[in-house]
Hints:
Layout: E1 3-8, E2 23-24, E3 27-28, H1 29-38, E4 44-49, H2 55-63, E5 68-71, H3 76-86, E6 91-96, H4 104-117, E7 122-125, E8 139-142, H5 143-152, H6 156-161, H7 164-167, E9 175-178, H8 195-208, H9 215-224, H10 226-229
Parallel strand pairs: 1-4, 1-6, 4-5, 7-9
Antiparallel strand pairs: 2-3, 6-8, 7-8
Helix pairs in contact: 3-5
Amino acid sequence: xxxxxxxxxxxxxxxxxxxxxxxxxxxxxxxxxxxxxxxxxxxxxxxxxxxxxxxxxxxxxxxxxxxxxxxxxxxxxxxxxxxxxxxxxxxxxxxxxxxxxxxxxxxxxxxxxxxxxxxxxxxxxxxxxxxxxxxxxxxxxxxxxxxxxxxxxxxxxxxxxxxxxxxxxxxxxxxxxxxxxxxxxxxxxxxxxxxxxxxxxxxxxxxxxxxxxxxxxxxxxxxxxxxxxxxxxxxxxxxxxx
Length: 242
C-alpha cells in the first residue's frame, strides 16, 4: 500500500507573497517544512502550480530530490488528484506549506491509525474540531476518496480547498475521525500567513530551535513565553472562499 504526503506550495499568496521562500535560521520556510515532513519516514511530494513564478519551488524540491507535480493554481483538488495518480498512491496525507514547523511524528502516527482502520472512506484529521495550534494540521484519506471528489466536486470552494467535499460527506459514505490535543491550544498560531506570523516563526526557530522540537515541546515554549505567543494572536485566519 503506497502512502504519500502531498504538500501544496505556491509563491503567489495574497497576504504575504513568496512567504514559503522567506528565511529563518539560514533556511527557507519551505525547507523547514520539508525537513519536518521527511522525519515522518513517509514519501513526500510537492504539488505546485504551472506558473513560472513557482519555478523556484520546483528548483528547491528538485535540489532535495523530491518529486514535484505541477497543476492548476486555483483548482487545487485537481492538482492533488493528479499528483496521487501520477505516483500511484493508495493513501494521501494532505498538508500545506504554510506550516513550517509541522510535526512529522504526528503524521506518521495518524497514518498508522488510518491503515489500522482499513476503511477507504475514512477521513482522519486533527482539525475537524480544532485543539491543536494552527500550523500542525494534517488530513489523511484514501486515493479512492480523493478521485471520487475529483470526479464529482463542483463548487469552487471544493476545488480550491481540496477536502471540503470529503469532510462535508457529500457522498454519504465518509466516516469522519478527529485527532485531538489533550488541552485546547487552538489559540496559538504556528502557521505562516502574515508578517507577524513570520516574526513569531523566526523567533521560535532562531531563539528556541523550534525546528528541532516536537509539537508538544513547541507548545511548552509558547506556554512559557506568553509575550512571544502574543506576537500574532490578533491575526484572523482566512475563511474558506475568501
